[in-house]
Amino acid sequence: IQSKLPHTGTTIFSVMSKLADTHQAINLSQGFPDYDCDPKLIALVNEAMKNGFNQYAPMPGLPELRTLIAEKVSNLYGANYHPDTEVTITAGGTQAIFTALSAVINSGDEVIIFEPAYDCYAPTVKLLGGLVKPYELAPPNYEIDWEMVKKLFTANTKMIILNSPQNPTGCTLSEKDIKALTKLTKNTDVLILSDEVYEHIIFDGLKHQSIALYPELRERSFITASFGKLLHATGWKLGYCLAPEWLTKEFRKVHQFNVFSVNTPMQVGIANYLKDTDTYLGLSAFFQEKRDFFRSLLSETSFKLLPCNGSYFQCVSYAHLNQEKDTDMAVKLVKTHGVASVPVSAFYTKGTDHQVLRFCFAKKQETLEKAVERLMKL
Ligand code: PMP
Ligand code: GLN
């Protein structure tokens, strides 16, 4: 067969986690907690199974869960998404992204992506026959020059993908960014995919700039989210998509034949768990403590710390130490220091290398301590 993705290899997360396992390294590469989720949540899922919630959920998701999500978004961002027609439960953020793109991207459509970018966007666009228009951002601040974005717009621009707080950089979009985006896309029908999986992991009192806050944008936007981040349960692979009715209609046309519906007892358990909003409203403080702890440890190493305003990733630069390729540096750290990271060049379609590595700090205190102890020897 002719490969549909001839230039796509195995995702860097699998590659680095496997390497970490092989060398019994401390795995700060793939983003997942090394501590368990709340036992109350596990009990609620067990209870749902025992109570017979073991058959198909409705195609768009459990109504109670959709209603809770709509309430959460209304309380936090003042946006009204109708649970029946504008909220869909998915098999994680990844399926929400894949489905949203599949629903609207046609051959030849151009999609603007800010890089470094989470690694599923570009291959999905390509798979659909779309063209990726990357805008490369650079360390230390990865800030967006909206005049440059403007230059990427053509008659074929179909969509722009946002991700704030951002993976891998930990940067966040400001109100000024959103205003610039609004101005740029005014009177156009350019769609937005806003990947907001880290909406509840944002630091130093910054306000998450959800697209749901902006009526003019949200009427042509998909917002995707993940319960994996919200509940410290990345292996459950549940998430959701918010979109106005006209887009949700198209989204569900794909969703119904992609997965039809997703895990019932977990949806029941999560719905019961999320009735208590403290479960997610304390997440920023929880991770800010981890970020501060990790940064204070790392400041003793020879790495240069880059800013981290959100997400559970800390990037470091070693450009002042050597010009080794970041992929080589990441392998070396595993093999000779026993710590796995992700080379940030993996998040650029052209493989641009700024000698930056990403570490996940959703880890126990002792894991972070042990890892940095090893990195001291660098
Ligand atoms: N988007 C971003 C930015 C992510 O970091 C992740 C995963 N960690 C996802 C989407 C996918 O989420 P999920 O694991 O729920 O598929
Ligand atoms: N989002 C996680 C990360 O950035 C990994 C998700 C995955 O392995 N697909 O590391």
What is shown here, in short?
The protein is α/β, with parallel strands linked by helices. It is 40% helix and 15% strand.
Written overview of the protein:
- The structure is a single chain.
- This protein is α/β, with parallel strands linked by helices.
- It folds into two domains: 12-37 and 281-375, Aspartate Aminotransferase, domain 1 (Alpha-Beta Complex), CATH 3.90.1150.10; 40-276, Type I PLP-dependent aspartate aminotransferase-like (Major domain) (Aspartate Aminotransferase, domain 2, 3-Layer(aba) Sandwich), CATH 3.40.640.10.
- It is built from 15 helices and 13 strands.
- The protein has helices at residues 12-22, 39-50, 63-77, 92-104, 121-127, 146-152, 175-185, 215-218, 227-230, 245-258, 264-273, 278-281, 283-298, 326-337, 365-375; strands spanning 26-27, 87-90, 110-115, 131-136, 157-163, 191-195, 221-226, 239-242, 304-305, 313-317, 339-340, 342-343, 356-360.
- The strands form three sheets. It has a seven-stranded mixed β-sheet with strand order 2-8-7-6-5-3-4, sandwiched between helices.
- Strand 3, helix 5 and strand 4 (131-136) form a beta-alpha-beta unit.
- Helix 4 (92-104) crosses helix 10.
- The longest helix is centred in the C-terminal third of the chain and has 16 residues, at 283-298.
- 47% of the residues are buried.
- Bound molecules: 4'-deoxy-4'-aminopyridoxal-5'-phosphate and glutamine.
- The site of 4'-deoxy-4'-aminopyridoxal-5'-phosphate (PMP) has 14 residues, from helix 4.
- Keywords: Aminotransferase, Transferase.
- This is Methionine aminotransferase.
- It comes from Pedobacter africanus.
